[in-house]
Design the sequence.
């Protein structure tokens, strides 16, 4: 069972950092599980916009998370450090601790390695610690990234102090998440930047049209 070094005085938050994932369709499946286990904020390295993520299979869960985009891992890591968030690498690394034995200590962001090549040197250097999922046969060298992320995030959620979601019948109770109107009227800091950039782009196009 997952463990924690300290009893949370408030529910710990979990975050997801998407970087270097091999198959883009895994992102949507991973996000679906991540939001089920408490992730409400996703950091993305490399992609510039939501449409570049190809979040196939997310089942509408993008409405339950906010996204912040970074050009490099170093920039994302700096943001995590500023906010006091630990970065945990989900990877079969020499220093990895089995997920059931990790002593979680607070708000944590999870980054997974590429299915084929694993983590890059820059990803490894950015992580504060590592965890992995033990296997019991020689049938496969590693798990699908969405499956691995789901297992680790569930372990963390169990000791984070987050309340368990209510059930109704054979499903969990859901809400609609943040719609377009809510994102427009109450944008996050990143969403404000996106809105401002779009306004500047439209203004530039209008100016260009006038000059032509």
Sequence:
């Amino acid at each position: 069972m997952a463990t924690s070094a300290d009893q949370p005085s408030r529910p710990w938050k979990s975050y997801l950092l998407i970087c270097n994932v091999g198959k883009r369709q895994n992102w949507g499946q991973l996000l679906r599980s991540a939001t089920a286990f408490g992730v409400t904020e996703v950091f993305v390295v490399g992609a510039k916009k939501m449409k570049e993520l190809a979040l196939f299979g997310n089942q509408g869960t993008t409405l339950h998370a906010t996204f912040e985009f970074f050009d490099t891992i170093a920039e994302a890591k700096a943001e995590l450090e500023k906010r006091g968030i630990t970065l945990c690498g989900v990877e079969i690394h020499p220093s990895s601790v089995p997920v059931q034995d990790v002593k979680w200590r607070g708000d944590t962001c999870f980054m997974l390695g590429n299915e084929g090549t694993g983590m890059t040197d820059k990803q490894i250097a950015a992580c504060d610690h590592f965890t992995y999922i033990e296997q019991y046969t020689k049938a496969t060298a590693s798990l699908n990234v969405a499956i691995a992320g789901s297992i680790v995030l569930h372990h963390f959620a169990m000791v984070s102090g987050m309340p368990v979601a209510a059930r109704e019948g054979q499903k969990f109770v859901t809400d609609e998440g943040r719609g377009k109107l809510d994102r427009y009227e109450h944008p996050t800091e990143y969403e404000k930047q996106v809105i401002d950039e779009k306004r500047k782009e439209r203004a530039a196009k209008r100016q260009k049209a006038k000059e032509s």
